[in-house]
Batch of 2 targets.
Target 1
Amino acid sequence: LILLDSLLQENTTIFHTNCSNFYCDPVMIPITSPYDLNIPMTCSPHTTPLVMVRRALALGYQTIALNTEVSQNQFLTRKQAKDKAKNGDFLADFPAPPTLSLTSEDYPLLASRGLTPTILTRLTISITNNDFMIHYNKSSIAKQYDLLAINVSSSPCLSSLLKSSFRWDILSFTPSSVIGGVRWTRKLYYECVEKNVYFELQYSPLIRDSLDRRRVISHAHTYHSVGKSRNIIFTSEARSPLELRSPADVANLAWIMGLTENQGKEDGTFPD
Amino acid sequence: MVRFKKRYFVVEFEQAQYVNQSKEHFDLEPLNSKDIDIANAVKDKVQELHGDFGRASISVGFKVIYANTTTRLVIIRTRHGPHRLVASALPFVTKIRAEGVVGQLLYTGATIKHCQLFMVRRQTRQLEMAKKWLANKKMDQEKLKEKIMDIRQIDPC
């Protein structure tokens, strides 16, 4: 897990520790903004992750995270594994982090400035209760990801997660779970902030669908009223290259989501 | 004397079909629409996002012109204040007259002069890229330069 905190605040290098045990293997990773920390690996069938990454780099992003999504109910507990009558796509272990090899032709803008892009890997787990930690702690593959995001759907779930000493980087949500989802209070918000958890607001649901748009905006406004929009990052979650927007546009979008202009610029785009 | 402050947005529209492709390209095809079509598309989006209030508040002093049709460069002028409504609606404009586009905000300026400087610099860079890209095909260098460097002016008032 990278400490996302240091990734966003310091514009220099940060340490990347590979596991939460006592033995840590620090590796230096250069950080550069602007960054887009959610490009899903499961994109639409018309396109591939490489095309998306190329488009994002052409738009001006320098740090990108490729997102692999898993859900807790894809993992079987020992009891469930015994009833072999279950159908569905179950995973034995977390999928391996994706690797993407880029040549300097893929990023002409950056190459002309003599820079290389930073491609990170991110794992998003949608959870319903704390049992996912059993699978997570057992797996060594899961710890190879650079960033960890948790997708919560209810308040008791989130509070039990906060009470445990589990550390993760990003808290995200799906637009459909906004109405019956987490009841945000200032206390809950700041507990997350103290744990250095960043709240993710995705902007491609806004472009895709009008109903999702309303839900995401209302959720963003909740974050603003409850937590003054602290510790927020904007990401794309773009399923096709048409849904990616340049950093300047995303900074303007931040205004609809309840942030001031300065906050919008900092939270994921230019350090202008 | 109270001055009417304005904001000028320099936006480039890319055609959706080229964005979806993975290969390199340099597109010199103009969009199949006029100034009014882009203005309507932006106004409709503002109406969708910010309602009647949004649409009404940007309508005074709102002007859209094609600065350069070949590279699909557009200048949008709004009053300072309502400009945020337009700026927040620009990423959502996906269709101009039934043609899929992706907009990219390049520059926000308070004076035409600075927008002009930015555009001239950008168009020279685009011209170089065009020359490199179209070196295979026999393109008339003079005509290419004319087409790309022709930047139309927007009225100050």
Target 2
Amino acid sequence: KIVMPPTPWVAEYIWLSGKNTFSDIRSKYKTVTNVDYDKVTLKDMTNWNFDGSSTGQNKGLNTEILIKPVAMFPHPFMKRAKAVLCECFYTDGTPTPQNTRKIANDFFNKYKSDVPWFGLEQEYFLFKDGIPFEWPQGGFPAPQADYYCGNGRQVCGRNIVLQHYEVCLEIGLKISGVNAEVAPAQWEFQVGPCVGIEAGDHMIMARWVFQKLAEQNNIDVNYEPKPIKGDWNGSGCHMNFSTEAMRLPGGMKEITAACERLSKTFVDDVKFYGGDNNERMTGHHETSKLSEFTYGIGTRHTSVRIGNDVAASGKGYFEDRRPAANIDPYLATARFFTSSMGYPGPSVSCLEPQVWWAALEQEASALRKNPNVSKAKL
Amino acid sequence: MQPESWIAEYVWLSGKNTYNDVRSKYKTITNISIEQATVDKLPEWNFDGSSTGQHRGDNTEIVIRPAAMYNHPFLQSAKVVLCECFYPDGTPEKNNTRIVAKKIFDAHTADEPMFGLEQEYFIYKGGAPFMWPENGFPAPQADYYCGNGSQVTGREIALEHYQACLRMELKISGMNAEVAPSQWEFQVGPCVGIEEGDHLVMARWCYQKIAEKYGLEINYEPKPIKGDWNGSGCHMNFSTKAMREKGGIKAINDAVKNLEKTFLDDVKFYGGDNNQRMTGAHETSKLSEFTSGIGTRHTSVRIGNDIAAAGQGYFEDRRPASNIDPYLATARLYSSSMGYPGPAVDCLEPQAWWAELEAEAKKNGQ
């Protein structure tokens, strides 16, 4: 029986090149000729490779880096095309150091039965030509008051934010909501609820979509934790989290147990919550101090917040408010999960060491000896 | 009933180069329907050679003979017809390199030589790379290769070209942003024999159309910007049937050994001014020596890790520049790899730097 070969279609292979997980997102296009677009599934997508010496990922003269497809979505901007998220490996089969997805996935697979759910609140600024979008040249806009969820001409950048929201929903990313944030040209989208590794995948894909829109509109998406010094909000990525046990009746007990565990490992946990996060976590602008661990009901100045609704119903989820906008979502979700549950988790050696860690450790040590903040009673 | 008329755009190479000296004119076809049309049914045509510098003496006609036909990417109910040029006496016009290559490919069809060419280029506007700052330079190379974000320039144009070529049913296997800002690459293949040159020339013709539409130029110079900015190459991936079969790595190694013998004349087919690009930096090797390696990007030839592991496949010649004549370059790589007689160096415009190359190679004891 003679069958017509399928009409060629385009797959954009996407990978993280290691400088960060929000703008160093690379991709290239492949014409797929061996499988029909309408019938293709992830397992049909073949491994590929790229020139690691052009992204600074190669080890020595053997420069090939393998990219292995791990998730596939419809392409947001091209018809009859797919966006294929990949993991990076050296040619000997070992994962590259930037392949934090594999590190996280190994933990999520090990503790599958907990069914960990995540909701991540990605804050960011829109920037253009080095300053926040539509801020006055050489000056500042009116002080923060009317921007958060505002409507009116004080709000900057809504068009591109809504375009991002619609495009993400069209390709099946789990974006649960969007809002204007406290600073002008600052916005937030929420990714979730996602199970395990899916949170990282959907976050990376949403950031990749934003890179495309940024390119098309000649703007930049700024994920710095504290881009503007002074009385202007920084950008966080609060993580909402629960296990199946927390979501069932009596789950409140599991939530408080998790908070108690987090109070023990917090000095190393916060290292996973974003480089330069020390600049954002001042104790002002609805942040807590990184050098202590606190939690409370409905409180926004604590490390962790348990919602009033959750406390009332005795089950649900809780929110870690410490993570910054620039987190690696794979490492941050895996670390948050394992520390909450008291499991061994990703090690600090996965991370680029930061100068401020030493000061953090000293301050935490000093505070432990003379605690002046008590946990809110439940 | 007379068939419905349709348009054939006849395309030919006029000899200055094979990337922008790509000429064409339109013919209304009335005697066969577009559905029934095949390349052998299309008539020969001719043009005024004195207007393209191709004529010999007072008899200025150049005959254009259809060689391949494709869907027209921009006109409805139309085809594009790639042609070869001949003098009125039937002899091939002196720039007709397609016929030179075809003769070599036709002599050994059992080899089934397969090619994949990686065409790099810059998008230019008004004499400078597209969207580079006026009188300045963009941020140094690091974030452009396969990048996404406002640092990337020209994607809409590269994508329009990619999709137009797919409409023509050209074998464009992929596309990516390259190391320098406004530098891009598309890959043509896998094609057997003469098809590679045809598909690359047609892809370049398609780009001339797009450039015309937007007032841009596609720059195929091997080293358009001096300094710490990548040049543009056209790496050639190649295999024969024997190399693709089990144990084919032996045939690959034999080919690499052959290439070492003839490299000094081979590189002359790999693009004028290629000496400016092949410095040993920016992932290039030196033209005056022949080297090969597994997974290496600083050698003349690279054998992929996957090929070495499987023991069969293809290899990559990284020396060719973006401005190659794909007919001559593919025929020369093929014949040199196999130890067959190939196109002669006198097909080419002599270059000033060849003498220097030969001197340097002699000094290195090659």
